[in-house]
Queue: 4 jobs
Job 1
Amino acid sequence: MSYIPSAPESLTARLPDGVVVRELHDRGDHASRTTELYRADWPIEVPPVQWNLVSSRPSTLRGVHVHVDHWDYLSVVSGEMLLGLHDMRPRSPTYKLAAQQLFQGKLPVSIAIPPGVAHGFYFGVTTTYLYAVSHYWNPADELGCRWNDPDLGLSWPVADPLLSPRDAGASSYGELVRAFAAATDRSALHS
């Protein structure tokens, strides 16, 4: 489990090993504010190769997804996001740990999610967030399962969320585990 010591108490729930939550600080005056989102000297494993700005409608749920190779790095700009995490790495000290944490744009933080930690995002209100990735998009590195599969151990505050076509047709957690193991084996062969 990784935390930045200055993280507020509300951000110290137990998270999967390697997930980093960093409190971000604003500085400014009456005319503007500046928030540092990323510094190369921060101790995280996400050298961003691409940044994305995403706006989600209320009641949208994205995921649950897991990556074999790439890290995600994100920060909520406005609105709020309920982040669900599930550690799928058999060698991790937090293997199968599920956790959820609420993040709000008015309390800026960054979240780094390592490969092998499945994640889903629920947006109860209109939300804008920035996210970066450590590798360019590759469909072989983009695995997923149904958002409400009970084996994830995640409890979402919605029964019928807005889903992308891909997320609506996602397979079971058991199928994700098999696909993740196979993809991890292939990735190890190419390393």
Job 2
Amino acid sequence: MPVWNSFQAGTRITDPVLSQISVGWPAFGFVGEALFPSVNVTERSAKYYVFNDRSTAVTAEVDYRAPGTEANEIPGLALSSDQYFTQEHALQMAVTDEERENIPAGSGINPEADAVELLTSKLTIGRELAIKAFATTAANYATNHSVALVDGTSTWSTTDYAQAGSDPAAVIERAKRRAHRAGSPALNTAIIPYATMSFLRWHPKLLAKGQYVRGDNLENSDVISLLGMEGWNVIIPEVQNNTAAIGQPGALDYLWGDSVVLAYVPPAAGLKTPAYGYQFTRNPLTVDRWREDKRKSDLVRVQWEYDLKAIGTDSLGKIVTGYLITNTIHATDQAAL
């Protein structure tokens, strides 16, 4: 009896081997948990504490105590509760008997493993799009925690690389100051899209600063150093996304566009630990499979249950542990990419 018919039709099983393939799928070029570390939870929905206003800890109080009197009593930290709600994300794919029969003997092709990798890739792109949508929306940030660069004045690229007023390092330093003033730990993570980084390597002010080290050929590491990000976790997402409608010719574009995101991401998630955001994960990537005889196919399904939440926010629920820089590439250069 063929291996794929070795379980009862319609019976769904969780396959640990295929699940491990899914978990181990190499998500190169993605941001993912570098910006939203995963917190494993057991409940689909629950409240968690958010320390909204950090100004309480640095507010001076009347602390003089006269002899024979009680010390001035102050209120404790005011906690406001927010709630996560994990949602399942799942895709499935049929592996047909005909497909198996056409596999050459000894080829090493594993259609189930290939299906798992394809499904995992699509689920990962779906999560990446959700992360990007949140992280690049200026309305999600506190006042003065985002800036839109202006074509012809301050974008980080032009066709002749000589835009007056464009100073990437100054923008980054301003972002650090804004976050620090708002009570955020020092920013330590940067998302610099591939296209933006490619222009930064040729930015005249960075070239001028680095000419004695690299001349006119800056590497990514040089740019990171010149921008004052040494020791940071700098992600340069290269992942592309097909924006064409189903059935139409492919239209690939960089998923992260030209928006730069700066953030504080802790070494590990934890209670009372500030962060840009967390991914509350109820069920990690798992793989189900079952037999459908009437289709002469095995069905493989990859599923994932999570919720993305902003953590380091002010009293209005706006991000203060991060900073957003949009429109880093001039429209002329965008059209020429």
Job 3
Amino acid sequence: MNSIKFIFGFLIAATVLLAIGGCERENGTATFYFDQNGANATVAVGGQNATISSNYQSNPPLCGTSAAGCANFVLPAGTYNYMASSNTSSWSGSVTIVGNQCTEVLLTQSTGSVIFWTTSNSFGNITVNINNGSGTITSYITGGIPTCGFSGCATFDLVPGVYAYTASASQGGATWNGNVTITADGCQPVQFQ
């Protein structure tokens, strides 16, 4: 009789374990994003591909499938490897997706800098526009080329690539335009004369 109870109890326990093991895992979301301006990136996770097409410089995006310009993935809970690439960088790693939750993944980008400056005091302030951003040169520099971030100059941090710029002086009507090449961890000086 005890052996029958044991077998019956074992069958019930095995049935419960099989039922639990057979349940589908709940889906969760992973949102990949940039916090720097730069090229688009393609991200691959769990056999799916998505594209990052914008950046979130001030705050991270609202995590989830509605995060505009982000690469969003809805997958069953678990740990997944990811790969991503742009024209200038590549990333790989793993992300853990939790059921009914959203995980944000910031893909950090290598950046470089450009500094705009002048040696002339006849231009007044110079407004510089590049890659949808603007800065102002408020003083002139003598005695050599300034380093990126130097006070009174206009410095921009950007992902590597070629960027068009425009600039205009507040006095005298001078304007400038051209292209500048940003390299990773570099500091490119552009002088206005």
Job 4
Amino acid sequence: MVISRVMSVSNLGVKLACQEFLARWSKNRDRPLNKPILVTLEVTPNCFLRCKQCDIWKIPKQPSLSLEKAEIIIDKLHDWLGGFYLSFTGGEPFMNLKLPQMITYAESKGIITHVNSNGVLVNQKLGRQIVASKLSAITISLDGAKAKTHDRLRGVPGTLAGALRAIRVLKEFAA
């Protein structure tokens, strides 16, 4: 019965089931028996918003991850893990202008990609690049149904309008 259930799920599902089993088994050992299936890669520490729930904006600007270094990291992770889930983060990840190329590179290796963004930078040009990169998933943060709430929490006027524009643009190009 267990075998037929496992065979009916996708390869990723099987991998997740095995990872969960190994993670539970590892609790009784002095070392982990499984490898990660989710990796978070910070592509920039910078952000232009002044969110109430975050202090990143208080940190002086720092260099973003280069495309060359990202490709090295992605290659090493892929060699070690095979297929896995890669979440690109920041600060605001789209402040790194090379992010669409990083996504394309990871996707070309069969890596499932995700970006968490405030959406404000997503215009027509970037929207086209994001969709062309074959990004698997994107999260656009919404902190309120009204601009008054969202913009207050994000610390900059117009951020709800920017997030909603990003959703419309991405939906348009993904159609």
